[in-house]
Design goal:
The complex is a heterodimer of chains A (376) and B (306). Chain A has 376 residues and is an alpha/beta fold. Chain A is built from 13 helices and 13 strands. Chain A starts with a helix and ends in a 10-residue tail after the last strand. The longest helix of chain A has 18 residues. Helices cover 75% and strands 3% of the residues of chain B. Chains A and B meet through helix 2, strand 7, helix 8, helix 9 and helix 10 of A and helix 1, helix 4, helix 10 and helix 11 of B.
Amino acid sequence: MKKLLLATAAMALGATTAMAEVKVGMITTLSGGGAGLGIDVRDGFLLALKQSGRDDVELIIEDDQRKPDVAVQLSDKMIQSERVDVMTGIIWSNLAMAVVPSATAQGVFYLSPNAGPSQLAGAGCSPLYFNVAWQNDNLHEAAGAYANEAGYKSSFILAPNYPAGKDALTGYKRTFGGDLAGELYTELGQTDYAAEIAQIRASGADSVFFFLPGGMGISFLKQYADSGVGLPVVGPAFSFDQGILQAVGEAAVGVVNTSQWSKDIDNPTNAAFVESFEAEYGRLPSLYASQGFDTANLLFSALDKAAPSDKAAFQAALEAADFDSTRGAFRFGPNHHPIQTIYAREVIREGDVYTNRIIGTALEDHADAYASECKM
Amino acid sequence: MSLILIIEQVLNGLQSGVMLFLMAAGLTLIFGVMGLINLAHGSLYMIGAFAAAAVAGFTGSFALALVGALAAAAAAGAIIEITVIRRLYASDHLDQVLATFALILIFSEGTRWVFGSFPLFLEIPPYLAGPVTLPGGIAYPKYRLALIVAGLAVGALLWFLIERTRMGIRIRAGENDREMIAALGVDISRLYTLVFALGAALAGLAGALVGAIQSVQVGMGEPVLILAFVVIVIGGIGSLKGAFLGALLVGLTDTLGGIFLPELFKLFTDPATAQSAGASLASMSIYILMSLVLIWRPTGLFGAPA
């Protein structure tokens, strides 16, 4: 009997050492209209994992199909039956709002590689929640700042009707000094913008700001170029990322967009990242891929210092953000969102490939507007 | 709100209506003749768009791309009819829904496997690119006008085929009494394959035509499929005339509702509330239209009484 107990105890001990591994749950969009974004985040993350050579990280990847209910089910499964320590991966803000608050409430760290809804940056912030990409408003604030610089006086602005769409228009309005010729919320996943383009034409605006990520942006840009309206367009990088530029084609060339990352940011980490990503996957990385890559490296830098089970130490290790980012120096503000420089880029054609190059800085060392509302 | 804007929006509504008709026509034919609910109709739309993008990428010709889309969608339709759908005619609608839903998943993953997850590029042909100025100074994209004309032409052809040809007589006969026409010596299973391929080709054509101004990506067919179902329910299931009127009604309601409802609400409330309330109501408008039609005529506008 004693022997048996001892054996059980030994087995239990053995089990705990084997479980010293860190379990990371990635819920992201791998099918449907937004799949390109999730695949880039995943591939960036996997590339960092491969380059780190770590064998103590177990990564579980699930597809949320861009559906909040599916994301919630997956996160319940990951937290309750897989017992993950850290979660990451969500692309869309409405899914993040459905998953992140309950995950952090259950003591799981969440590192966002993309979605940065204002609610989670302000009053709803959490010590366990970190955003490695941006607060949603940031790139749009930069677009507004760029529009001022370009001398636009009257913008027509549109975005889909979901949390990030509202953050987008709020962000643009926060920095843009001119008037609004019109403001529209479209449906999420809308594919035909004829009605909106007709309104733009009739509005008398001198510029258009739009935030339509993924396939929505492809449809809008193609239709806008064909409509002959011809007003200058500004937008965040989301409609001009590497994954969709090839599908938009010539219609995007010359358009100015704002991004915290670009493949020509000059630092060794970024150069190595772009080269190794292209070698590994046979395509150029997008900003989403860079965000996935940075998220993974942030996580690994923290794992080197502390285990996620020691919450305070792991949180401090994440806050230190002691890793080489593709964006150069990287630091978090008090609400765990990045304080970073946002660039203005221009779409160009390089041989057969459409891509972006930096033409200037839109906002230097920019922090988000909600940090003061965050009480941790 | 100027008159020019209103006319432009009516044209937009018409354009989205005739494209919906191409989808709904196949759906309603297949339901009318074979009594089959085909959820995979949206996948055939997607196949049309992908085939067009692939052919256009390879040959650079938009006309060949359309031929490729028609051929690919018709072939895919014929293949699934022979291998899967044929076994479902005798079973109830739940089985059909389950089996065709499975086909959606198979087609989506299959397309992702062949073409990858990133959207494909399909361009408007140069001779149809850019706007044209209509009488009254309305600048309107040439391609969208071409879509309206193409949709109406296909509708006319389809009417001729069904009402004026021998094959049309057989299809209508199959709709009314399938045992009797089989007894008269018509090869009913070949007729079914033909009708299914015809419906598939129409969906593929719609996918290719619309793909040039939208994003060609996996899953592009499902939102259109839902609208097409609304169309055939409004028009009366099985009726081509109903599908045509229903499609125009849905296209116009959808487009004009999104513009005028917020304007209407601005008369009562502040602009921000009007914008969001109007937009919400606009996205419901086609379903409200559907319920009103169903209250007035439970079998749809041209549906046969049950």
